[in-house]
Amino acid sequence: MSTETRTPASEAPRPGKPKKSVFTPGRLIAAAVVLVVLILMFFSTKILTGKEATEAVPGTFSPESYAQEKFSSEIAPDIIKRATELAVVQKAIAADPDAAADKYGVVSGSSPAVYSVKFTGTAGEPEANGQLPVKVEGVPSDIKVLLQMGPAINGTAVRDATGKVEFSQFKNQIDYQNVGAELNKQVKDQVLSKVDAASLAGKKIAAVGAFSLINPSAYIITPVQIGEAP
User: Any stretches that span the bilayer, and where are they (predicted)?
Assistant: First the structure.
């Protein structure tokens, strides 16, 4: 007689239960929505550089914007209004530099006086350093009169000539220096870009500008107005 062993029904092997997929319709839809949002954000994002980036941050000072706003509206007109004939200023400096500075110049701290001047004279050939020599009647021949014509404009005479742009108005020395450089750029963009220095050689010209009295034998003037004399 054979003995048959039966496995209880409760112990019989159960068929494997299929795993639930993580990619359910709901999750697929959510992922698609996120992807669309990211794409829209990418195409609507504007990357700011230079001036835009500076202006986009509230409270951030922009020397470029300052110079663009102030040069033609305030600084250049003020230099033109203050300008004294160069020959008159030269004689005053020769007689008494301190008195000349008080009467015709602007002095900031211990810096040399800055003068706003106007003159008519005969232009020479532009020099390699971008300066245009001018013979001005009434100014001794041993004093060079040189107009800065670029591309490099040195110094801060335009910034300092009016006495209205002071260090105390700015957050730090860097901003103050950058304003001077940006004002010089405005001279190039708004004044010198309209003038061909080489074409002025031998002609009578009229100019208005500012210079710092660093070298008493050479007045290096940054022009805010220049052209052929009538």
Answer: 22-43
Residue 33 resides in a domain? no
DSSP assignment of 99-140 equals HHHHHHEE--TTSPPEEEEEEEEEE-PPPTTSEEEEEETTS-
In the chain, how many domains are there?
1
Q: What is the structure's pLDDT at 14?
A: 56
Mention every residue, 6+ apart, whose C-beta is less than 8 A from residue 131. 146, 147, 148, 149, 220
- The 8 Å CB, 24+ separation contacts for 166-171 are 166/108, 167/108, 170/61, 171/61
Asked whether residue 28 is domain-assigned, the answer is: no
CA distance 182 to 165: 13
Report d(CA 210, CA 226) in Å as an integer: 12
Residue 18 resides in a domain: no
pTM: 0.74
CA dihedral for 164, 107, 180, 58, sign (positive or negative): negative
Gap between the Cα atoms of 154 and 70, Å rounded: 19
Report whether pLDDT(112) > 50: yes
Are 92 and 104 spatial neighbours (Cβ–Cβ below 8 Å)?
yes
In angstroms, the CA 179 to CA 112 distance is 19
Cβ within 8 Å of residue 60, ≥6 positions away: 54
